[in-house]
Specification:
The chain has a single domain, classed as 4-Layer Sandwich (Purple Acid Phosphatase, chain A, domain 2). Helices cover 13% and strands 35% of the residues. The strands form 2 sheets. It has a 5-stranded mixed β-sheet with strand order 3-2-1-9-10. It starts with a helix and ends in a 7-residue tail after the last strand. The protein is built from 3 helices and 10 strands, in the order H-E-H-E-H-E-E-E-E-E-E-E-E.
Length: 164
């Protein structure tokens, strides 16, 4: 089977979670130019959801604080999809991820960034750009991917923009 250009080109996937109704200037600046944005839940703002969609293609799931928000039928508790030859699963909670069935699993909820390998699956929690925990500052994650491979996987530290 021959791969198409979209699968063989190097693509940038930016991963966020737990924005909780606030998109900082530093976060928006980092997300610009992403080929895909993944949000692992707790958006808590329909306005933020609309703003994120204007930045480019986005996949998102519901978090525990999104239960009364309306983002559309494509935002559910668990999303599976393929991108650049890789199979992804996204859920707010790590325990809901089918790690044995995908190449990349994305979760949030803890507000603590971590990238780890579990068997053949790369598990990514980007932390929180809004309310970080565990001594780490505001953060997101960034992958570069191509032809069914993760080329790089990094936590991106964000500026501590003032809010509230």
């Amino acid at each position: 089977m021959e791969e198409n250009t979209a699968q063989t080109a190097v693509r940038r996937v930016d991963i966020i979670s737990d924005t909780h109704g606030y998109l900082s200037d530093s976060l928006i600046a980092e997300l610009k130019g992403a080929d895909l944005i993944i949000h692992a839940g707790d958006i808590t703002s329909e306005d933020d959801w609309e703003r994120l969609k204007m930045l480019g293609p986005i996949v998102a799931v519901l978090g525990n604080n999104d239960y009364f928000r309306e983002y559309g039928p494509e935002v559910t508790r668990l999303v599976r999809f393929s991108f650049a030859g890789l199979y992804f699963a996204v859920s707010h909670y790590r325990e809901d991820l089918p790690l044995r069935e995908v190449d990349v699993a994305v979760c949030g909820h803890t507000h603590r960034p971590v990238i780890t390998q579990v068997g053949s699956c790369l598990v990514v929690n980007p932390g929180s750009p809004t309310f970080p925990r565990g001594g780490h500052g505001p953060s997101m994650a960034r992958l570069t991917v191509a032809a069914g491979r993760v080329l790089t996987a990094d936590i991106v530290d964000l500026a501590r923009d003032s809010f509230w």
